[in-house]
User: Fold these one by one.
Assistant:
Number 1:
Amino acid sequence: SYSYFIEVSMDELDWIRVIDHSQYLCRSWQKLYFPARVCRYIRIVGTHNTVNKIFHIVAFECMFTNKIFTLEKGLIVPMENVATIADCASVIEGVSRSRNALLNGDTKNYDWDSGYTCHQLGSGAIVVQLAQPYMIGSIRLLLWDCDDRSYSYYVEVSTNQQQWTMVADRTKVSCKSWQSVTFERQPASFIRIVGTHNTANEVFHCVHFECPEQQSIQKEEGREESGTTDDSLASQQLDPHALRAPSGGSLPPSPGSSSRSPNRQHQ
């Protein structure tokens, strides 16, 4: 991940800073907006690299746009979900059979063995890194819900993976299925979801993550409101031993299997 700032000029003498991400960690494609201004030169200055002392750019584009955007404290206030593979978000902590399953937008095809991301209770978390900092005030989660279990958890956000701010504390609440989390809008590059309880076993499972919450997506309204089981799916996948708590520190046999690989991003 990198930190940087961007300045523009007409004469290479007087420079105006239009983007300042020097205090944030950023990765991959950066979609940057600022009030339109006349310029001839653009200067990109890297200030930090989490791996070495060199700042690298692969591609650069600049243009004028008629697209309507909202800025707050110099950061985009997104209206659409930016926690997507297309927007270069990534799951950097958590275990899944499929890399970035949490962000692929699939909220239907999951079962006891696949389609979710998890972590052992009391150890680790599920962490999503956005490509760049945004002003975020809501998120939406789909907790694994192929049976009647409930979870407890909390959510934190950060811009640098060092200082974390808790934005939701549901450690004393029994939560099922879809979760809407709203909070005071603030800069965020990282979102950390930490499970604290599962009524079935010792693992926290999450199927889908989005931020900000997409209010218009209500395709599974009945399931969201009630948190009920998808009976047809459960009857096909149900393992009679699925609800047994695991022994020791191993992951449970269901949902998922004992053969898992950590879904971590390597910089």
Note: The first strand starts at residue 2 and ends at 9.
Number 2:
Amino acid sequence: MNYDSEQIDQNDEDADLAEERKLLASLIE
């Protein structure tokens, strides 16, 4: 159970990073 929670947290972090990259890319263009 603990492992599942950590895995979900990691996925959320990855999604946040991807969103930030999209925002930065749109600002630069």
Note: Residues 18 and 24 are 10 Å apart (CA to CA).
Number 3:
Amino acid sequence: MVACQSAEHPRVLVVDDEPLLRMFNVDLLSDAGFDVIEAGNADEALRLLSDVTDIRVVFTDVEMPGRIDGFELAALVEARWPEIGVVVTSGRRLPNAAFRSSARCFVPKPYAAAHVVELIDSFVHARH
């Protein structure tokens, strides 16, 4: 297991199969003061979540290749790591009622970068 982030720079996991969008979000959150790690799909994200003990928030797209989409990833994170906040985004799919009744958050695309930073920051401070 790996734990090396400082309290001043909470760790966020960005999950997106589109390299340019993932890079944009990594840069956005890094510039906002977060320590950001990234995954290209949900399976990779689950491996990181198992290995890296100090992830505070997962920011994930919905549609990705592989056996798990972003909604399923969010449910798995909530079940296995309830202390980790989850923000899900999509430009094509909307969350179902079960998702909306959970502690997770959905942000439709296109989104304002500042709004995403504020949401992630609110998860960090709510769970600290």
Note: The longest helix spans residues 113-126.
